[in-house]
Amino acid sequence: MLQKWLNVKRLLLQRSSSAAAAAAAAAAAAAGTAAFRLVRRCQYLMLQKWLNVKRLLLQRSSSAAAAAAAAAAAAAAAGGAAAEYLPERLIAEWVRQSLVLSHHRQVLLLVQQNANSLVRCQALARQQQQQQQQQQQQQQIAMQDAGKGKQIHKDRAAATDPAAAAAAAAAAAAAAAGNVTSTQPQWMHALKHKPHTDKDRGGRSQQQQQQQQQLQQQQQAVHVQ
């Protein structure tokens, strides 16, 4: 079992060297998006190698119980040496060997710098937007304060100027009087004194003459009785 693990490790190292060469060629060919492609490629290769190791482990586990017992005994005899050939150790070693080359490190640094610059640009854009909003709010507050200041200045000028105050009072009184006269009902106008005309005087004199004649007739009738 230990010999088989050594063979698996050797195969994985051979594939990792070829994968590193392919990744180096891809990074040298493309400059702009090479960083992201390299990261994706490394992730894909790591997943592929893990699946291969898992498949081999499943094949080994499906073997006879005697082989499993022998493998356990060999692992116990080997002690700490067997732990170095676990899949996690193989993958970690492959990743470490893949990133040894200088151009791989440069690519990763570029990826990190681009990510940092993107974060800084986003932070700067948010800061500028907040500054613009604050400026707009300050302008609105200044306009409101200016309008209030003008109204207060007008009120103070009217209070300090007696002529203006008198004119304002007269205008207010005139407006109030106009409102009072306009609100008077029509029947109040009918109660006002109207001058007597000639017709009214003639009618009243005739009524007085008739009343006097009636009184005279009544007196004569009394004397006759």
TrEMBL record:
| Disordered: region residues | 140-160, 181-225
Positions with biased composition (Low complexity)? 206-225
User: Could you name the domain of life of the organism this protein comes from?
Assistant: Eukaryota
* Protein name in the entry: Uncharacterized protein
Q: Which organism is it from?
A: Eimeria mitis
